[in-house]
Design goal:
The protein is α/β, with parallel strands linked by helices. Helix content is 64%, strand content 9%. Helix 4 crosses helix 5.
Protein backbone atom coordinates (compact mmCIF):
# COMPACT_ATOMS: atom_id res chain seq x y z
CA UNK A 1 0.00 0.00 0.00
CA UNK A 2 1.35 3.44 -0.97
CA UNK A 3 1.72 6.20 1.60
CA UNK A 4 -1.06 8.32 0.14
CA UNK A 5 -3.43 5.32 0.16
CA UNK A 6 -2.52 4.69 3.80
CA UNK A 7 -3.31 8.34 4.65
CA UNK A 8 -6.68 8.02 2.91
CA UNK A 9 -7.39 4.75 4.74
CA UNK A 10 -6.36 6.25 8.10
CA UNK A 11 -8.84 9.08 7.54
CA UNK A 12 -11.58 6.55 6.69
CA UNK A 13 -10.83 4.65 9.91
CA UNK A 14 -11.02 7.92 11.82
CA UNK A 15 -14.45 8.60 10.29
CA UNK A 16 -15.61 5.08 11.17
CA UNK A 17 -14.49 5.54 14.78
CA UNK A 18 -16.51 8.76 15.03
CA UNK A 19 -19.58 6.99 13.59
CA UNK A 20 -19.18 4.10 16.05
CA UNK A 21 -18.90 6.55 18.96
CA UNK A 22 -22.08 8.32 17.82
CA UNK A 23 -23.91 5.01 17.34
CA UNK A 24 -22.86 3.96 20.85
CA UNK A 25 -24.29 7.19 22.28
CA UNK A 26 -27.54 6.68 20.33
CA UNK A 27 -27.81 3.06 21.47
CA UNK A 28 -27.27 4.06 25.08
CA UNK A 29 -30.08 6.59 24.83
CA UNK A 30 -32.42 3.98 23.28
CA UNK A 31 -31.43 1.48 25.97
CA UNK A 32 -32.33 3.95 28.71
CA UNK A 33 -35.75 4.56 27.11
CA UNK A 34 -36.29 0.79 26.80
CA UNK A 35 -35.46 0.26 30.47
CA UNK A 36 -37.98 2.93 31.46
CA UNK A 37 -40.70 1.23 29.39
CA UNK A 38 -39.87 -2.22 30.72
CA UNK A 39 -40.18 -1.11 34.34
CA UNK A 40 -43.84 -0.27 33.71
CA UNK A 41 -44.58 -3.81 32.48
CA UNK A 42 -42.81 -5.70 35.31
CA UNK A 43 -46.06 -6.35 37.17
CA UNK A 44 -47.52 -8.14 34.13
CA UNK A 45 -44.37 -10.25 33.72
CA UNK A 46 -44.57 -11.63 37.29
CA UNK A 47 -47.75 -13.56 36.59
CA UNK A 48 -46.36 -14.89 33.31
CA UNK A 49 -43.22 -16.14 35.09
CA UNK A 50 -45.33 -18.02 37.64
CA UNK A 51 -47.23 -19.75 34.86
CA UNK A 52 -44.03 -20.82 33.07
CA UNK A 53 -42.34 -22.35 36.18
CA UNK A 54 -43.97 -25.79 35.72
CA UNK A 55 -42.89 -25.90 32.07
CA UNK A 56 -39.30 -24.93 33.00
CA UNK A 57 -39.09 -27.72 35.61
CA UNK A 58 -40.11 -30.26 33.00
CA UNK A 59 -37.54 -28.97 30.50
CA UNK A 60 -34.79 -28.96 33.20
CA UNK A 61 -35.36 -32.64 34.00
CA UNK A 62 -35.07 -33.55 30.30
CA UNK A 63 -31.86 -31.49 29.89
CA UNK A 64 -30.36 -33.14 32.99
CA UNK A 65 -30.85 -36.64 31.55
CA UNK A 66 -29.40 -35.52 28.24
CA UNK A 67 -26.33 -33.97 29.96
CA UNK A 68 -25.61 -37.20 31.89
CA UNK A 69 -25.69 -39.15 28.64
CA UNK A 70 -23.31 -36.69 26.95
CA UNK A 71 -20.86 -36.86 29.91
CA UNK A 72 -20.64 -40.68 29.53
CA UNK A 73 -19.87 -40.29 25.83
CA UNK A 74 -17.26 -37.56 26.53
CA UNK A 75 -15.42 -39.84 28.98
CA UNK A 76 -15.11 -42.54 26.31
CA UNK A 77 -13.86 -39.99 23.75
CA UNK A 78 -11.34 -38.49 26.22
CA UNK A 79 -9.82 -41.92 27.03
CA UNK A 80 -9.31 -42.61 23.31
CA UNK A 81 -8.08 -39.10 22.47
CA UNK A 82 -5.38 -38.41 25.14
CA UNK A 83 -2.47 -39.00 22.75
CA UNK A 84 -3.92 -36.93 19.91
CA UNK A 85 -4.56 -34.04 22.30
CA UNK A 86 -0.90 -34.13 23.39
CA UNK A 87 0.24 -34.02 19.75
CA UNK A 88 -2.12 -31.12 19.00
CA UNK A 89 -0.69 -29.16 21.94
CA UNK A 90 2.87 -29.70 20.66
CA UNK A 91 1.92 -28.55 17.15
CA UNK A 92 0.10 -25.51 18.48
CA UNK A 93 3.11 -24.22 20.47
CA UNK A 94 4.93 -22.89 17.40
CA UNK A 95 1.89 -21.16 15.96
CA UNK A 96 1.07 -19.71 19.40
CA UNK A 97 4.57 -18.21 19.70
CA UNK A 98 4.30 -16.74 16.19
CA UNK A 99 0.91 -15.22 17.01
CA UNK A 100 2.30 -13.71 20.25
CA UNK A 101 5.23 -12.21 18.30
CA UNK A 102 2.92 -10.72 15.68
CA UNK A 103 0.65 -9.34 18.40
CA UNK A 104 3.59 -7.56 20.10
CA UNK A 105 4.71 -6.07 16.77
CA UNK A 106 1.19 -4.83 16.07
CA UNK A 107 0.93 -3.26 19.53
CA UNK A 108 4.30 -1.48 19.11
CA UNK A 109 3.27 -0.24 15.65
CA UNK A 110 -0.08 0.97 16.99
CA UNK A 111 1.61 2.74 19.92
CA UNK A 112 4.01 4.54 17.57
CA UNK A 113 1.16 5.57 15.28
CA UNK A 114 -0.72 7.05 18.24
CA UNK A 115 2.37 8.95 19.41
CA UNK A 116 2.88 10.53 15.98
CA UNK A 117 -0.84 11.22 15.65
CA UNK A 118 -0.88 13.08 18.98
CA UNK A 119 2.52 14.75 18.52
CA UNK A 120 1.60 16.13 15.09
CA UNK A 121 -1.93 17.23 15.98
CA UNK A 122 -0.98 20.92 16.09
CA UNK A 123 0.95 20.69 12.81
CA UNK A 124 -1.90 18.81 11.11
CA UNK A 125 -4.47 21.43 12.13
CA UNK A 126 -2.17 24.29 11.11
CA UNK A 127 -1.34 22.76 7.75
CA UNK A 128 -5.00 21.98 7.11
CA UNK A 129 -6.00 25.54 7.97
CA UNK A 130 -3.48 26.92 5.44
CA UNK A 131 -4.72 24.65 2.63
CA UNK A 132 -8.37 25.39 3.47
CA UNK A 133 -7.68 29.13 3.50
CA UNK A 134 -6.05 28.85 0.06
CA UNK A 135 -8.97 26.85 -1.38
CA UNK A 136 -11.67 29.00 0.25
CA UNK A 137 -10.98 31.91 -2.09
CA UNK A 138 -10.12 30.14 -5.33
CA UNK A 139 -12.45 30.33 -8.32
CA UNK A 140 -10.21 29.06 -11.08
CA UNK A 141 -7.01 26.99 -11.08
CA UNK A 142 -5.02 29.67 -12.90
CA UNK A 143 -1.62 31.28 -12.54
CA UNK A 144 -2.74 33.35 -9.55
CA UNK A 145 -3.80 30.16 -7.76
CA UNK A 146 -0.37 28.55 -8.23
CA UNK A 147 1.39 31.68 -6.99
CA UNK A 148 -0.75 31.61 -3.85
CA UNK A 149 -0.05 27.89 -3.49
CA UNK A 150 3.71 28.52 -3.57
CA UNK A 151 3.40 31.18 -0.85
CA UNK A 152 1.20 28.90 1.28
CA UNK A 153 3.67 25.99 1.08
CA UNK A 154 6.63 28.22 1.90
CA UNK A 155 4.67 29.56 4.90
CA UNK A 156 4.08 25.91 5.95
CA UNK A 157 7.89 25.42 6.08
CA UNK A 158 8.13 22.90 3.23
CA UNK A 159 10.95 25.02 1.76
CA UNK A 160 11.29 27.28 -1.28
CA UNK A 161 12.64 24.64 -3.66
CA UNK A 162 9.96 22.11 -2.68
CA UNK A 163 7.18 24.69 -3.05
CA UNK A 164 8.37 25.59 -6.57
CA UNK A 165 8.68 21.93 -7.56
CA UNK A 166 5.20 21.03 -6.33
CA UNK A 167 3.66 24.06 -8.04
CA UNK A 168 5.29 23.17 -11.38
CA UNK A 169 4.29 19.51 -11.23
CA UNK A 170 0.71 20.28 -10.15
CA UNK A 171 0.10 22.43 -13.21
CA UNK A 172 0.23 19.30 -15.36
CA UNK A 173 -1.38 17.00 -12.76
CA UNK A 174 -4.50 19.17 -12.38
CA UNK A 175 -5.00 19.26 -16.15
CA UNK A 176 -4.58 15.49 -16.48
CA UNK A 177 -7.09 14.81 -13.69
CA UNK A 178 -9.43 17.55 -14.87
CA UNK A 179 -9.64 18.50 -11.18
CA UNK A 180 -12.15 21.27 -10.50
CA UNK A 181 -13.64 20.64 -7.06
CA UNK A 182 -11.89 21.87 -3.92
CA UNK A 183 -11.41 18.39 -2.45
CA UNK A 184 -9.89 17.18 -5.76
CA UNK A 185 -7.39 20.06 -5.76
CA UNK A 186 -6.56 19.50 -2.08
CA UNK A 187 -6.00 15.76 -2.66
CA UNK A 188 -3.76 16.51 -5.65
CA UNK A 189 -1.61 18.92 -3.58
CA UNK A 190 -1.12 16.46 -0.70
CA UNK A 191 -0.58 13.48 -3.01
CA UNK A 192 2.16 15.42 -4.82
CA UNK A 193 3.78 16.38 -1.50
CA UNK A 194 3.79 12.73 -0.41
CA UNK A 195 5.12 11.58 -3.79
CA UNK A 196 8.07 14.01 -3.73
CA UNK A 197 8.73 13.13 -0.06
CA UNK A 198 8.85 9.41 -0.91
CA UNK A 199 11.05 9.86 -3.99
CA UNK A 200 13.59 12.04 -2.16
CA UNK A 201 13.86 9.54 0.70
CA UNK A 202 14.49 6.33 -1.25
CA UNK A 203 18.19 6.13 -0.35
CA UNK A 204 17.80 7.74 3.07
CA UNK A 205 19.10 5.97 6.18
CA UNK A 206 17.12 7.04 9.26
CA UNK A 207 18.73 4.50 11.61
CA UNK A 208 21.20 5.32 14.37
CA UNK A 209 24.46 3.37 13.98
CA UNK A 210 26.31 1.67 16.82
CA UNK A 211 29.79 0.26 17.23
CA UNK A 212 30.07 -3.49 16.80
CA UNK A 213 32.86 -3.51 19.41
CA UNK A 214 33.77 -1.01 22.13
CA UNK A 215 32.02 2.28 23.00
CA UNK A 216 29.59 3.96 20.60
CA UNK A 217 30.13 7.74 20.39
CA UNK A 218 27.42 10.23 19.37
CA UNK A 219 28.57 13.82 18.85
CA UNK A 220 25.82 16.45 19.21
CA UNK A 221 26.00 19.87 17.53
CA UNK A 222 23.52 22.75 17.31
CA UNK A 223 22.95 26.33 18.43
CA UNK A 224 21.94 27.24 21.98
CA UNK A 225 18.29 26.89 22.91
CA UNK A 226 17.26 24.19 20.41
CA UNK A 227 16.96 21.45 23.04
CA UNK A 228 20.30 19.78 22.39
CA UNK A 229 21.20 19.10 26.03
CA UNK A 230 17.66 17.93 26.80
CA UNK A 231 17.88 15.52 23.87
CA UNK A 232 21.14 14.11 25.24
CA UNK A 233 19.55 13.63 28.68
CA UNK A 234 16.50 11.84 27.25
CA UNK A 235 18.65 9.62 25.04
CA UNK A 236 20.84 8.75 28.04
CA UNK A 237 17.68 7.76 29.93
CA UNK A 238 16.57 5.51 27.04
CA UNK A 239 19.87 3.64 26.83
CA UNK A 240 20.15 3.36 30.63
CA UNK A 241 16.67 1.75 30.69
CA UNK A 242 17.90 -0.69 28.01
CA UNK A 243 20.63 -1.81 30.40
CA UNK A 244 23.52 -0.01 28.70
CA UNK A 245 26.37 1.69 30.53
CA UNK A 246 26.12 5.38 29.53
CA UNK A 247 28.41 8.39 29.89
CA UNK A 248 27.97 12.09 29.03
CA UNK A 249 30.77 14.52 28.12
CA UNK A 250 30.26 18.25 28.82
CA UNK A 251 32.31 19.72 25.96
CA UNK A 252 30.29 22.95 25.67
CA UNK A 253 32.69 24.65 28.06
CA UNK A 254 32.25 28.33 27.09
CA UNK A 255 28.49 28.81 27.51
CA UNK A 256 27.48 29.86 31.00
CA UNK A 257 25.57 27.09 32.77
CA UNK A 258 26.01 24.48 29.99
CA UNK A 259 28.26 22.24 32.09
CA UNK A 260 25.98 22.31 35.10
CA UNK A 261 22.91 21.74 32.92
CA UNK A 262 24.38 18.52 31.55
CA UNK A 263 25.59 17.51 35.03
CA UNK A 264 22.03 17.93 36.33
CA UNK A 265 20.74 15.62 33.58
CA UNK A 266 23.38 13.10 34.61
CA UNK A 267 22.12 13.22 38.20
CA UNK A 268 18.48 12.88 37.13
CA UNK A 269 19.11 9.93 34.83
CA UNK A 270 21.80 8.34 37.00
CA UNK A 271 24.69 8.27 34.52
CA UNK A 272 28.34 9.40 34.63
CA UNK A 273 29.21 12.93 33.44
CA UNK A 274 32.80 13.88 32.53
CA UNK A 275 33.41 17.62 32.93
CA UNK A 276 36.07 20.23 33.62
CA UNK A 277 35.98 23.82 34.84
CA UNK A 278 34.37 26.48 32.65
CA UNK A 279 36.40 27.66 29.62
CA UNK A 280 38.52 24.49 29.57
CA UNK A 281 39.61 23.06 26.22
CA UNK A 282 36.56 21.10 24.90
CA UNK A 283 38.84 18.55 23.20
CA UNK A 284 40.53 17.84 26.57
CA UNK A 285 37.13 17.02 28.10
CA UNK A 286 36.35 14.67 25.21
CA UNK A 287 39.77 13.01 25.50
CA UNK A 288 39.18 12.24 29.21
CA UNK A 289 35.68 10.91 28.44
CA UNK A 290 36.81 8.64 25.58
CA UNK A 291 39.70 7.29 27.64
CA UNK A 292 37.39 6.54 30.58
CA UNK A 293 34.78 4.94 28.27
CA UNK A 294 37.40 2.57 26.84
CA UNK A 295 39.04 1.66 30.14
CA UNK A 296 35.77 1.10 32.03
CA UNK A 297 33.82 -0.61 29.24
CA UNK A 298 31.08 1.95 28.65
CA UNK A 299 28.57 1.15 25.90
CA UNK A 300 27.48 4.69 24.95
CA UNK A 301 29.23 8.08 25.08
CA UNK A 302 27.11 11.16 24.29
CA UNK A 303 29.14 14.34 23.68
CA UNK A 304 27.65 17.83 24.05
CA UNK A 305 29.40 20.58 22.07
CA UNK A 306 29.20 24.34 21.56
CA UNK A 307 27.10 25.89 18.80
CA UNK A 308 28.55 29.34 18.21
CA UNK A 309 27.62 29.85 14.56
CA UNK A 310 28.44 33.56 14.81
CA UNK A 311 32.09 32.51 14.74
CA UNK A 312 32.06 29.70 12.21
CA UNK A 313 35.83 29.51 11.74
CA UNK A 314 36.55 28.89 15.43
CA UNK A 315 33.61 26.50 15.73
CA UNK A 316 34.81 24.47 12.76
CA UNK A 317 38.32 24.21 14.23
CA UNK A 318 36.91 23.18 17.61
CA UNK A 319 34.65 20.47 16.14
CA UNK A 320 37.46 19.18 13.90
CA UNK A 321 39.77 18.90 16.92
CA UNK A 322 37.11 17.03 18.95
CA UNK A 323 36.45 14.61 16.08
CA UNK A 324 40.18 14.04 15.64
CA UNK A 325 40.62 13.18 19.34
CA UNK A 326 37.71 10.72 19.21
CA UNK A 327 38.91 9.00 16.02
CA UNK A 328 42.48 8.70 17.31
CA UNK A 329 41.25 6.76 20.36
CA UNK A 330 38.38 4.88 18.64
CA UNK A 331 39.07 4.62 14.89
CA UNK A 332 35.46 4.05 13.73
CA UNK A 333 33.99 6.79 15.97
CA UNK A 334 32.02 9.01 16.16
CA UNK A 335 29.32 6.73 14.79
CA UNK A 336 26.92 9.68 14.51
CA UNK A 337 27.25 13.48 14.32
CA UNK A 338 23.72 14.64 15.17
CA UNK A 339 22.51 18.18 14.52
CA UNK A 340 19.74 19.35 16.86
CA UNK A 341 17.17 21.68 15.26
CA UNK A 342 14.10 23.34 16.78
CA UNK A 343 11.09 22.54 14.58
CA UNK A 344 9.23 25.63 15.77
CA UNK A 345 11.82 27.94 14.16
CA UNK A 346 10.95 26.78 10.64
CA UNK A 347 13.14 28.37 7.96
CA UNK A 348 15.70 29.46 10.57
CA UNK A 349 16.24 25.78 11.38
CA UNK A 350 16.80 25.09 7.69
CA UNK A 351 19.39 27.89 7.52
CA UNK A 352 21.16 26.52 10.61
CA UNK A 353 21.26 23.06 9.04
CA UNK A 354 22.88 24.42 5.88
CA UNK A 355 25.51 26.27 7.93
CA UNK A 356 26.35 23.31 10.18
CA UNK A 357 26.53 21.05 7.15
CA UNK A 358 29.28 23.34 5.84
CA UNK A 359 31.08 23.33 9.20
CA UNK A 360 31.05 19.62 10.09
CA UNK A 361 30.19 16.17 8.75
CA UNK A 362 26.57 15.93 9.97
CA UNK A 363 25.18 12.38 9.65
CA UNK A 364 21.64 13.07 10.86
CA UNK A 365 19.11 15.49 12.32
CA UNK A 366 17.43 15.54 15.72
CA UNK A 367 14.22 17.54 15.26
CA UNK A 368 13.09 18.82 18.66
CA UNK A 369 9.69 20.31 19.67
CA UNK A 370 7.90 18.87 16.62
CA UNK A 371 4.75 18.74 18.73
CA UNK A 372 4.95 22.51 19.31
CA UNK A 373 4.82 23.78 15.73
CA UNK A 374 1.65 24.59 13.79
CA UNK A 375 3.45 24.16 10.45
CA UNK A 376 5.37 20.88 10.50
CA UNK A 377 6.58 20.94 6.90
CA UNK A 378 10.21 21.34 7.98
CA UNK A 379 10.90 17.59 7.62
CA UNK A 380 9.94 17.78 3.94
CA UNK A 381 12.30 20.72 3.46
CA UNK A 382 15.19 18.97 5.24
CA UNK A 383 14.72 15.83 3.15
CA UNK A 384 14.13 17.57 -0.19
CA UNK A 385 16.68 20.37 0.04
CA UNK A 386 19.43 19.19 2.41
CA UNK A 387 19.26 15.44 1.82
CA UNK A 388 20.06 14.86 5.48
CA UNK A 389 18.18 12.06 7.28
CA UNK A 390 16.09 12.91 10.33
CA UNK A 391 16.98 10.28 12.96
CA UNK A 392 15.23 11.42 16.14
CA UNK A 393 12.16 13.58 16.79
CA UNK A 394 10.72 15.20 19.90
CA UNK A 395 6.97 14.51 20.12
CA UNK A 396 6.40 15.81 23.66
CA UNK A 397 8.00 16.75 26.95
CA UNK A 398 8.07 13.33 28.64
CA UNK A 399 11.24 11.24 28.86
CA UNK A 400 10.02 8.69 26.31
CA UNK A 401 8.68 11.30 23.86
CA UNK A 402 12.04 11.42 22.09
CA UNK A 403 11.42 8.84 19.36
CA UNK A 404 13.32 7.25 16.50
CA UNK A 405 12.09 8.98 13.37
CA UNK A 406 9.57 7.00 11.31
CA UNK A 407 9.18 8.57 7.83
CA UNK A 408 5.83 6.84 7.25
CA UNK A 409 4.29 7.66 10.63
CA UNK A 410 5.39 11.29 10.23
CA UNK A 411 3.73 11.84 6.87
CA UNK A 412 0.55 9.94 7.89
CA UNK A 413 0.38 11.94 11.13
CA UNK A 414 0.86 15.24 9.27
CA UNK A 415 -1.70 14.72 6.50
CA UNK A 416 -4.29 12.33 8.00
CA UNK A 417 -7.69 13.97 7.86
CA UNK A 418 -6.71 16.40 5.08
CA UNK A 419 -7.69 14.15 2.15
CA UNK A 420 -10.97 12.76 0.89
CA UNK A 421 -11.61 9.49 2.79
CA UNK A 422 -11.78 6.28 0.75
CA UNK A 423 -15.23 4.75 0.32
Amino acid sequence: MGLFDRIRKAFSSQDDEEKIKQETVDNDEESMKSEENSSDSDSNVVSEEKTSEDVDQSVDSQEKNSDESEEDNDEILDSNGDNSEFIEEENSNDSSEQNDSLKVEEEVSSDEEERYDKGLEKSRKGFGAMINSLLANFRHVDEDFFEELEETLIEADVGFETAMKISDELRQEVKLRNAKKKNEISDAIIEKLVEIYENEGKEEDNNLHFSSEGPTVFLFVGVNGVGKTTTIGKLAHRYKMEGKKVMLAAADTFRAGAIEQLAEWGRRVGVTVVKKVEKSDPAAVVFDAVKKAKEEDYDILLVDTAGRLQNKVNLMKELEKIARVITREIPDAPQEVLLALDATTGQNALTQAKQFKDVTNVTGIVLTKLDGTAKGGIVLAIRNELHLPVKLVGLGEKMDDLRDFSPEEYVVGLFKGLVTPSK
